[in-house]
Write a structure and sequence with these properties.
single chain, 194 residues, alpha+beta, Pnp Oxidase, Chain A, seven-stranded antiparallel sheet, three-stranded antiparallel sheet, 5 helices, 19% helix, 39% strand, globular, binds flavin mononucleotide
Length: 194
């Protein structure tokens, strides 16, 4: 006889304090955070900058955890660290932009990730305009402006689902993040046709 499916617990709302289930989950046998971080480092990902409108001007951060979710309706998702200033603005303003960086934009990615660089420094020298009230950086590989559809907390991050309201695709090669290093695409995979 097969075991009945385990009920899937509803994820906690984004602003809920850790519930009574949090502690048993932490004690479950498994590889632990260090093992998982080693695995996550092997996930090759495009590098993006997520921006939103803060109370005192634009906010933005580097994010590699961005994924396409749906075409009809057009949805994408981003995983933002709980406590991030940009996340607070994404939630408060209900809108944000995702910029896919080009492989020459490593310095921009590092700047938008630096915890000691204030928002004014992150945006210094960038060519910025507002699209649907959201700060959009010029010169990236592509960007999407999204309306915040859903935000849920999972562990130490929050999963943000955005409905794409405007999109622009430019040219160039993507900046990648793999094994905790920036990388770029170099041709085809070994054995790939032509
Ligand atoms: C290549 C790279 C990828 C990153 N990806 C993420 C990510 O997916 N989610 C996240 O929350 N932080 C990510 N970070 C870290 C944030 O960019 C960093 O914590 C930033 O300082 C947060 O800014 P804020 O607190 O001003 O919003 C990444 C950093 C780097 C260098």
């Amino acid at each position: 006889m097969t075991a009945p499916p385990r009920p899937v617990a509803d994820p906690a709302p984004a602003d809920a304090p850790p519930g009574p289930d949090a502690e048993p989950l932490r004690e479950e046998p498994g590889p632990g955070a260090a093992g998982c971080l080693a695995l996550y480092a092997k996930l090759a990902a495009g590098v993006t900058v997520v921006t939103a409108c803060g109370d005192d001007g634009p906010l933005g951060m580097t994010v590699s955890a961005v994924t396409s979710l749906s075409a009809r309706p057009p949805l994408l998702l981003a995983c933002l660290r709980h406590g991030s200033r940009t996340l607070a603005a994404v939630r408060a303003r209900r809108a944000f932009a995702v910029h896919l960086l080009r492989d020459e934009q490593q310095e921009l990615a590092a700047r938008f990730a630096s915890p000691t660089t204030p928002a004014s420094g992150r945006f210094a020298g960038t060519d910025l305009r507002a699209v649907l009230g959201v700060p959009v950086l010029a010169g990236t590989l592509a960007w999407a402006v999204c309306l915040t559809e859903d935000v849920r907390r999972y562990g130490d991050h929050q999963l943000v689902v955005g409905r794409v309201a405007a999109v622009h695709v430019g040219g160039g090669r993507p900046l990648l993040w793999h094994d905790r290093r920036f990388r770029s695409l170099t041709g085809s995979a070994p054995g790939a046709p032509g």
